[in-house]
């Protein structure tokens, strides 16, 4: 067996739960177990904890009122609520929606569903550099456009989108604006009011809270039909007895990532730059997938020409290294990533993509270990690859 070092470079797929977040949850998994909707003491205790978490989370994201935060079972649910709920309440008889073509599937699939329900959807293509040009959104706007949804940062290629400009354009024409911010809280300065959006998606497990908790920010007076109906919790916007421990975890995790932002963002950016530099300087025919300079500090996305992403992933896994190719949800399928195709990357190159994402527990030793392991793996795969030989000759040539 080759030397192994457990090396996690997939923080954009999920993060471990921070032990301090576990501590913040524990009271609600033991003593404080009441139903927050019950009126007796035990219920009121849970209610107080839930509302305190809501206030803290609202403050972190810059919401004006705690009631603008709706706890959900994750980012996917929040995206579905916004995409399906806002148009159907604001324009029940149909209308036009704009989304970017490189959204997460949690936005794209509800958009397809809206088409089946009679809405028209424009999928705005990103520029090859990896960003949505506000002028392209302006050109797509119509009088009946009811919702514009563009993600704050792309979860594969890591590029940031000009949301404030897009929101201003959409609002001029009377449309509502949603942004999927699952990747950005704690990575870049974040404030829903400064962005000017009406709705925003958050996911706990991208910020060191557990899977299965998230939130939708919904600016007051934004119409939204509920996706989940029942007992009327969350002011009738999301029924179901609330996940009090999850809410406490989300608020604590959000406070922690934002408090650490000023020190953590440059540290992560330096690790990311080492990864990019290390790969592109030692391996020829490797490039950064999207060149837009506005980007998350923690994601490096690279095209390794002539090599299958899956093959790299498995060889790295054998060395104890976890990375992504395409995106986690579509791995296992042989379809190249819709994100890479949307920025004009040819399918044969998209197949050779790799996403490296760093986080709170990544060290310089992790980066060094990865770089030591990676070149030999790529060279070996290229030596065996008829495609690579045809495209470039031998890996050395
Ligand atoms: C992870 C992620 C989601 C989905 O969030 P879950 O909590 O896993 O449902 C949605 N959008 C983006 C951009 C993500 O990164």
Give me the number of helical elements.
Answer: 13
Cofactors and ligands: pyridoxal-5'-phosphate
The named CATH superfamily of the largest domain: Type I PLP-dependent aspartate aminotransferase-like (Major domain)
Number of individual domains: 2
What is the terminal-to-terminal distance?
30 Å
Characterization of this structure:
This protein has 397 residues and is an alpha/beta fold. The chain has two domains: 7-15 and 261-392, Aspartate Aminotransferase, domain 1 (Alpha-Beta Complex); 19-259, Aspartate Aminotransferase, domain 2. It is 41% helix and 13% strand. A seven-stranded mixed sheet has the order 2-8-7-6-5-3-4, sandwiched between helices. Strands 9-10-12 form a three-stranded antiparallel sheet. The protein has a two-stranded parallel sheet with strand order 1-11. The longest helix is centred in the middle third of the chain and has 39 residues, at 244-282. It is globular. The two termini are 30 Å apart. Bound molecules: pyridoxal-5'-phosphate. Pyridoxal-5'-phosphate binds at residues 74-76, 79, 104, 106, 151, 155, 180, 182-183, 203, 205-206, 214.
Question: What would you say about this model in short?
Answer:
The protein is α/β, with parallel strands linked by helices.
What are the key terms here?
397 residues, alpha/beta, Aspartate Aminotransferase, domain 1, Aspartate Aminotransferase, domain 2, binds pyridoxal-5'-phosphate
């Amino acid at each position: 067996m080759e030397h192994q070092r457990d090396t996690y470079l997939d923080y954009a797929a999920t993060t471990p739960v921070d032990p301090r977040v576990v501590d913040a949850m524990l009271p609600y998994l033991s003593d404080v177990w009441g139903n927050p909707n019950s009126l007796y003491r035990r219920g009121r205790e849970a209610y107080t904890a839930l509302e305190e978490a809501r206030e803290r989370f609202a403050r972190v994201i810059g919401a004006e009122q705690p009631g603008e935060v709706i706890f959900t079972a994750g980012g996917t649910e929040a995206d579905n609520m916004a995409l399906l709920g806002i148009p159907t309440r604001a324009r029940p008889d149909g209308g036009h929606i704009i989304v970017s073509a490189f959204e997460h599937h949690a936005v794209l699939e509800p958009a397809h569903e809206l088409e089946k329900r009679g809405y028209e959807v424009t999928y705005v293509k990103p520029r090859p550099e990896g960003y949505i040009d506000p002028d392209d959104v302006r050109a797509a706007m119509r009088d009946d456009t009811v919702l514009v949804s563009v993600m704050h940062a792309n979860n594969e290629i890591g590029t940031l989108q000009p949301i404030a400009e897009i929101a201003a354009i959409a609002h001029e024409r009377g449309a509502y604006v949603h942004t999927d911010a699952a990747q950005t809280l704690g990575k870049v300065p974040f404030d829903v009011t400064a962005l000017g959006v009406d709705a925003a998606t958050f996911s706990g497990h991208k910020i060191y809270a557990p899977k299965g908790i998230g939130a939708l920010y919904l600016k007051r007076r934004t119409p939204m039909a509920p996706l989940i109906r029942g007992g009327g919790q969350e002011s009738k916007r999301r029924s179901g007895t609330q996940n009090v421990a999850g809410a406490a975890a989300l608020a604590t995790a959000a406070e922690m990532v934002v408090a650490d932002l000023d020190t953590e963002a440059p540290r992560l950016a330096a690790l990311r730059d080492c990864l990019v530099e290390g790969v592109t300087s030692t391996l020829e025919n490797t490039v950064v997938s999207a060149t837009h300079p506005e980007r998350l500090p923690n994601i490096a996305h690279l095209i390794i020409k002539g090599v299958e992403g899956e093959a790299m992933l498995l060889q790295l896994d054998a060395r104890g290294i976890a990375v992504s190719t395409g995106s986690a949800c579509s791995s296992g399928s042989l379809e190249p990533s819709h994100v890479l195709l949307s920025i004009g990357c040819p399918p044969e190159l998209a197949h050779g993509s790799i996403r490296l994402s760093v986080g709170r527990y990544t060290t310089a030793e992790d980066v060094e270990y990865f770089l030591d392991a990676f070149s030999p793996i790529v060279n070996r795969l290229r030596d065996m690859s008829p495609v690579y030989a045809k495209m470039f000759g031998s890996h050395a040539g």
